[in-house]
Each structure stands twice: as structure tokens, then as C-alpha cells.
Amino acid sequence: MQVNPSSPKPSLSVIAQDMREVDQVIAHRLDSGVPLVGQVARYIIAAGGKRLRPALLLLICGALGFKGAQRFNLAAVVEFIHTSTLLHDDVVDDSSLRRGNPTANETFGNPASVLVGDFLYSRCFQMMVDAQNMRIMQVLADATNVIAEGEVQQLMNMHNAELDEAGYLQVIRSKTAKLFEASARVGAILAGSSPELEEICAEYGQALGTAFQVIDDVLDYTGEAAVMGKNLGDDLREGKTTLPLIAAMQRGTASQSALIKEAIETGGVAMLDQVIDIVKTTGALDVAHLAATQEAQRAIAAARQLPAGPHTECLLQLAAQLLERQS
């Protein structure tokens, strides 16, 4: 099965009805006797987003022939896990804009965002029990723990200009790629797959998630705020040492490297235009795109080992088209 990066964008219509079922589960499970809980949670979920993690779980189930209703429940679980991390992240990062809208913490305040994030985490574990599958509970519980560790590691790395590519990849594979990996793995477990096939699905998810985050970090220096739905230069303001900056410091002159180092250590958005110019002129974006391409190719190689069909074709296209992502 060949995939052409210039071929039409992947159609998620193959799981459109499944996603509607997931939306119904989400709406039902957001019910709470405390009005503010539902209000905050619905605010961030209604703001949109790509819903890639639940879509990934559904696509893996479809590729492997699993049609049980539990896929809707667990797809909602991974979306809730993701949403809870967004609520907490925006508080930690003091973000004011997400998906083109004011963040929940900007609208409702930090305390409400943190506590509703906690509610969603605990709701997830209630929903996991419904699956009556200890293996699935283990995968999702472990993933949630790894994500939390990744967030703490990223916090420790804030304003650390000495972070290298290996350290950067370790963080994004924990805080971002781990939930992609878990979503794909859960789909394989639901389908009763062999350990070997489960690992293939997990590798696809990890590679896709890693490529997704690398491109996200590139867009912070090349995208447009109106398209991305967040403020350009947020990573620099927060002191995040991402791959474009790491590569620029390695490839730039001593003065260019010193300027980027100072910007990271001080959160110097006043230097943003200079930093963007250095990132572009040193070829740092090529380094980051190459890293993302290698991860996308790893995802494609894994997907090619799945049974042929429309769900697998969509998985292949998701990986191939990721490199053209603009938001």
C-alpha cells in the first residue's frame, strides 16, 4: 500500500458515526451535580480540537475489525485524559489563548481549571472500570502517570538552554506521544490482538504523536496565530527549549546561539523576531522537519503491517499528511 504525501487529505468520514457516538458518551459523562464542573469541561471540549486521540483508537478498532460499543467509552476516556491535561497545562503555562478562544483559566480562573481537570481525571478512572479489562486499565493508568511525569520534567526544563535533542524527545514522548500510543494500544487490546500486533499499533501511535509534537513546536516559529489558535512565540515566553531552538543553537554563530540562549533563559519574547530569523536562516527548521519526517515514516511502516482497508488507509494518510499541518 503506497502513500503519497501529496495525495488527498485523510477522510475521517469512515469513523464519522463512531465519533458522534463518542460525543454522546462525552456529553453524558460530563453530567455533574456541581454546575461549574460541567460548565468548564464543556467550554474546553466545545472549543474544538482535532480529536486525534479518540479518532486513533476508533481507527485501530476499525482496522482490526472490532465493533463493540466499548470503543466509544474508551475513546471518550482518552479525550477526557487529554482535556484534563490541557486544563492543567494552561494554568502552569499561564496561557491565555487556545484553539482561537480564551483558555478556561482565562475565563473561569485557575482554581476552577485545576479542580475541573481533577474531576475529568477521576471520571476517566470511573469509565475505565466499565471496560472490565485489567489490561486496558493498566495501559491507561500507566499512560496517565507517564504524562504527569513528562509534564513535571518539562517544568524542570523550563528556561534550560542546555537541553539537548535526546532530552527534548524524552519529554515529548512522555507528555504528548504517550497518549497517542495508549490510544492505539487500547484499540488493539479491544480487538483481541496478538502481543506482536499490539506493539505494532502502539509504535504507530507513539511515532504519530512524536511527529505531531515536533511539528507543533515548529509552528510556534513559522505559523500564524489566527490559524493556529494560539499566540505565536508562546513556547519562547514559557522558556521551552524545543527542537527548532536546539538546532538553531547548534548550527548558528556564537552570537546567534548566545541570543537564543538568553531568550530561553529570560522568556524574552521581545527577541522573538530575531529568534525566528535565526531559526530560519540556520536551517534549524530543516532539522526539525527531518525529525518529524522520520517519525511519520516510522508510523507509516507500522500501519502498513495492519490489514488493508479504509481504516488502515486513513491511518496511513494521517501520518503522511501530518507534515503539511498548519495548525
Automatic annotation (TrEMBL):
Q: Which reaction does it catalyse?
A: 5 isopentenyl diphosphate + (2E,6E)-farnesyl diphosphate = all-trans-octaprenyl diphosphate + 5 diphosphate
Keyword tags: Magnesium, Metal-binding, Transferase
InterPro entries listed in its UniProt record: Isoprenoid_synthase_dom_sf, Polyprenyl_synt, Polyprenyl_synt_CS
Q: Under which EC number(s) is this enzyme classified?
A: 2.5.1.90
Which BP terms in the Gene Ontology apply to this protein?
A: isoprenoid biosynthetic process
Tell me the function of this protein.
Supplies octaprenyl diphosphate, the precursor for the side chain of the isoprenoid quinones ubiquinone and menaquinone.
PANTHER family xrefs: ALL TRANS-POLYPRENYL-DIPHOSPHATE SYNTHASE PDSS1 (PTHR12001:SF69), GERANYLGERANYL PYROPHOSPHATE SYNTHASE (PTHR12001)
Q: Which family does it belong to?
A: Belongs to the FPP/GGPP synthase family.
Q: What is this protein called?
A: Octaprenyl diphosphate synthase
